[in-house]
Amino acid sequence: MNFVLRTIGIFVAVAVAVWLVPGIEIGGEASTWASVLVISLIIALLNMTIKPILQVLGLPITVITLGIFYLVINTALLYLASWLVGTLFGIDFYIATFGSGFVASIVISIVSSILNGVLGANEY
């Protein structure tokens, strides 16, 4: 149930990021909402599997940069999710520049954190 709630939070967060951040676009043959759902599922799976490993490996740099490198890890995972949905599902999740990906990762982090708190996905 916790995974489903987190995926719902990421779904809304990705939709907000696509709407707010210039340079982030979704295309492809499927409808936009279905594409956002697939992207949010991929991001949720990456957050569960690869993100903890990258956080541990990047801990020294994160401490030195006072947490800014954590946002770079989120941006890298957003680029990885973009590549995965393009390769596996044929969905064009286009990130124009690193700056737009960085801002989108900030928006996704903030919105999903707020929604996870409201939905109770942070409770164990």
Keywords:
two-stranded antiparallel ribbon; single chain; 124 residues; 76% helix; mainly alpha
How would you portray this structure in words?
This protein has helices at 2-20, 32-57, 59-64, 68-88, 98-119, and strands at 24-27, 92-95. Helix 1 crosses helix 2, helix 1 (2-20) crosses helix 5 and helix 2 packs across helix 4 (68-88). It is mainly alpha-helical. Helix content is 76%, strand content 6%. The model has no long low-confidence stretch (mean pLDDT 90). The protein has one domain. The chain is globular and about 45 Å long.
For this entry, what is the oligomeric state of its chains? single chain
Tell me the number of strands: 2
Quickly give the structural class: mainly alpha
* Strand percent estimate: 5-15%
What level of helicity do the residues show?
over 70%
Rg, Å, rounded: 14 Å
Q: How far do the termini sit from each other?
A: 11 Å
SSE run: HEHHHEH
Give the number of helices.
5
Q: Biggest sheet, in brief? A: 2 strands, antiparallel
Identify low-pLDDT runs. Answer: none
Q: What's the shape?
A: globular
Going across the biggest sheet, name each strand in turn: 1-2
The average pLDDT is: 90
Domain count: 1
